[in-house]
Amino acid sequence: MKIDQNITFMARTAQENENGGKEVKKGKENSTQTIFAGSLQGDFSLQSRIQQKRERARKQAMKVVNDAWNGDRKIYEEIDKSNNHAKELRQENGEMRAEKNEIAQKMEQLRQAYGVDADSEEQKQLELLKKQQASVNPYSGEQLTQEEWEQLSDMGLERTEYQRRVLELNKISLSYEEKLYDNTKAIVEENSVVRGVRGERRKKHLMTDAQEDAEEIMEAAEDEIIGMVVDDAKEKLEEEKEEREEEAAEIKEEKEKQEELLEERREKEDVLEELVEELPMDKLADMDQAMTEVKRQIQNILNEMTLVTEDIKGSQVDVGI
């Protein structure tokens, strides 16, 4: 599994030189996303959330793969267990068949030692007695015919020493039949289990499906991260927009205040001119007194215009005569 997706953050100042807005690019070939969305470089909270999102997705993807691997490993363990058991049973069957062969060889050695001919009546009776022993063993598969039962009845109960010794060995040989039957049945069952498990494994494609699921988890996480970055960028852009609107409102309000102050100043100047024009002519004889009166009234006006002189630079009233 290889998920190689990156997100590149660029501050608004760099991006504004190119597009003047926000941009989200997602390339299919190299799975690279570039986000232009405000000044995000200092947003450690966003970076932390992105890292946490990636880490959770990575852990989830690894769990999917590990679970599939563990499931696949258990399947192989079951297959190995069945194969090993079947191998042990076949080995045990081989050992028992080898012992049966040794017993058969001992029987042949006894025949030769006692000088019994293979076509003699004694040997024929022995073969019939051996078949009788096998017929009572349900795992041997031997059955006596009616004629053979009649022959056994005619033989009576007397047995030669050779026959007794061979029948003892034959009894031991027949004792392996049940175990051989059970082992062979178990081998068939184990082989069936192995075929069934392998068939189911081929159908499920555990590791392939797990890898695809893990890649989908990582891709979904990257898509969510893109959404997180874009949402965060939108929020920051909205905040900046509100700040600019507030600044514009403050500038407009200040401009209106300045216009009001200028209007007030013009009104004050008009009053001053009217005041000078309305002074009585007889008072002009005493020039010093008139000047003092004028300056006093002008100073009063200027005191009232203190706010104007402080806020509007460059505006002056020439009171010299």
Strand line-up of the largest beta sheet? 1-3-2
Distance between the termini: 95 Å
Shape: rod-shaped
Strand content: under 5%
Oligomer: single chain
Residue runs with pLDDT of under 50 for 5 or more positions: 1-5, 7-32, 35-42, 312-321
Compute the number of helices.
8
Largest sheet: 3 strands, mixed
Lay out the secondary structure:
Blueprint: E1 6-10, H1 12-16, E2 23-26, E3 32-36, H2 44-114, H3 121-135, H4 146-155, H5 161-204, H6 206-277, H7 287-304, H8 306-311
Description:
By secondary structure, the protein is mainly alpha-helical. A 3-stranded mixed beta sheet has the order 1-3-2. Helix 2 runs antiparallel to helix 6 and helix 3 packs across helix 5.
A few lines on this structure:
This protein is mainly α and 321 residues long.
Give the key terms.
321 residues, mainly alpha, three-stranded mixed β-sheet, 8 helices, disordered N terminus
